[in-house]
Amino acid sequence: MAKQLDLPTRAFGAEPPVPDRAVLADWIAEHRGRLADLITYRLDQSLAPQLPAGIGTPCAGGRFYADRIRECIEGIAENRATGELHADTPDIIEDAAAIVVQKKDAWCAMPAPHALGIQDAYYGDADEWNDAICGIYRTLMRAMRDTGVFGHVLICEQANDPELIALAGQKVFFFSPGPDRETLADILEHQQQAAITQGRLETLFDLMNEYTVRKIFLLDPDDSAIRLARTHFDPDQIVGAGYCTDECDAYWKGVVERSVYVR
Question: Helix 21-30 and helix 38-47: axis angle, to 10°?
Fold first, then answer.
């Protein structure tokens, strides 16, 4: 008799809307005594709906977290590097502590370094600039992990090889929401896991002739996507995944509900 089984689930962050001023003011008042601003509000709201939905590996943050990263980098002005970069970690440590209060061992998503759009007007050398900005990221991410965040998702539209070489690892996952073939190939060059939509599965299958893929995170899964993924992967290699850019309460519940297969 056929049996329905659950796939594990994972989040890659969210983009909660900017609230009305009154809502934000009330929230800040409720959290007086600790860092409380628009960024911390959105950080809180990015994670909160994932927990009652039952997401197995939740993840706070999203592209919006770029503002906090910029605030924590000394040596930039008007999004230009005008001096030697240094990391200023207190605010990001407070953010990490707030994440851990909600969910121990949650991940945190943020834009990859190049996605910040910071222009180098100081180093004058691509390798030195990459070393500097990736060094900042390593410091910030380490500070968050030391506070209890498990790992980081770096969101990118296109892959950046120097960043992948410098940062990809067991606790740093590069995530492109809609990668083209070249971006997907570049990511697979450095990590043997990929987040993928159903529409990109055939491209992934083709790239598996060149790259080892040990696990896929199937974005916005449904029955047809899972069945297609299972033509090339065992169920224990497939994770139902999401990245919310809309109404997140229903979204995360839907990810969990649809992350099932029949055996």
Answer: 90
DSSP secondary structure, 83-103, as one string: EEEEE--HHHHHHHHHHHHH-
Residues paired with 107 in a beta bridge: 59
Helices (H), the chain: 21-30, 38-47, 50-53, 66-71, 90-102, 126-147, 161-167, 181-188, 201-207, 223-229, 248-258
pLDDT confidence of residue 87: 97
H or E, element range at 238: strand 238-244
* Strand duo 80-87 + 119-120: pairing: parallel
Contact between residue 44 and residue 36 where contact means Cβ atoms under 8 Å apart: no
Q: In this predicted model, what pLDDT tens digit does every residue of 32-91 receive, in sequence order?
A: 778 889 999 999 999 999 999 999 999 999 999 999 999 999 999 999 999 999 999 999
The pLDDT of residue 158 is 86
d(CA 107, CA 152): 5
Measured in whole angstroms, the distance separating CA 219 from the mean position of its chain's CA atoms is: 13
Residue 204 structure tokens: 């992934």
Would you say 2 and 255 are in contact if contact means Cβ atoms under 8 Å apart? no
Model pLDDT, residue 262: 85
Structural domains of the chain, with CATH: 4-262 (3.20.20.210)
| Low-confidence residues of the chain: pLDDT under 70 | 1
DSSP letter for each residue of 161-188 = HHHHHHH-BTTEEEE-SS--HHHHHHHH
Q: How far is CA 133 from CA 2, 101, 220, in A?
A: 52, 29, 32
- Around Cβ 221, how many Cβ atoms within 10 Å? 27
The pair phi, psi for residue 193, each rounded to 5°, is: -135, 150
